[in-house]
Amino acid sequence: xxxxxxxxxxxxxxxxxxxxxxxxxxxxxxxxxxxxxxxxxxxxxxxxxxxxxxxxxxxxxxxxxxxxxxxxxxxxxxxxxxxxxxxxxxxxxxxxxxxxxxxxxxxxxxxxxxxxxxxxxxxxxxxxxxxxxxxxxxxxxxxxxxxxxxxxxxxxxxxxxxxxxxxxxxxxxxxxxxxxxxxxxxxxxxxxxxxxxxxxxxxxxxxxxxxxxxxxxxxxxxxxxxxxxxxxxxxxxxxxxxxxxxxxxxxxxxxxxxxxxxxxxxxxxxxxxxxxxxxxxxxxxxxxxxxxxxxxxxxxxxxxxxxxxxxxxxxxxxxxxxxx
Length: 324
What we know:
By secondary structure, the protein is of the alpha/beta class. It folds into two domains: 2-216, P-loop containing nucleotide triphosphate hydrolases (Rossmann fold, 3-Layer(aba) Sandwich), CATH 3.40.50; 222-279. The protein has helices at 40-47, 90-100, 105-115, 130-142, 160-175, 187-193, 211-218, 230-239, 259-268, 283-291, 317-320; strands spanning 2-11, 14-24, 29-33, 55-60, 75-78, 148-152, 179-183, 196-201, 204-210, 222-227, 243-246, 252-255, 273-279. It has a six-stranded mixed beta sheet, with helices on both faces. A four-stranded antiparallel beta sheet has the order 11-12-10-13, with helices on one face. A three-stranded antiparallel beta sheet has the order 2-1-4. The longest helix has 16 residues, at 160-175. The radius of gyration is 25 Å and the shape is elongated.
């Protein structure tokens, strides 16, 4: 339903997106991942017609989003939860959005109940916490009972209950056959929510793949093994083709053999195994490995904080003169 084809966006001497193509279909939760500055938000803005691409196209249901007669009934969106009039209450914020698309007040009240804002919806949006604003933005995305939703960092500011609620909501929308596209930097949540991943770096497509395949190829699982005579057993495991790392507490982290293989090897050599725990692959590790060459703002690992705070007894000349 959402299709990006050879999309490029340049700002003078900066290329934010370069020949980007992907498609987001119904029935799946698709995660849109990338380091800071990768072009995710720019791509979403171009999908909504909030900017003009240098070249290429972005369509929703086969049309430009701005050409849809009632866009909120086709694709509900949340790009910036903070983009609300602080003096307008939540109800009238949603009512204005609804009326722009021919949606009645009854649906506004339904979405308010759905996102759990009934007790605060008549307060000015300026007093809302970030989590409350996220819920208000999600309510706006759901106003038109749309065929799909596109959410930019919707998990920011939500408490644990809110994260679990949103996870269930997105799963239900996908199970109903709707399109779900969301971006987030919370890899642990994306591993739980996303069925499919589109990964970008420096404006270019890095991966467009099912989540399970990315984890299998980029972050294979391992076994945590504790055994009597661990050093000798580690050599046996390596001889069987496994890769073995010794943890600080003496446990063995085994790659390349599953639990059954480790158990059979231990039985054959009469090794007493006291723990055999599968360790699930990490989407965070897979993501870092995949995007390592595409990070725009990487901190220097060797950088150290100063061992002591400089003396503040004598202000610098700039401070004495009131400079900032």
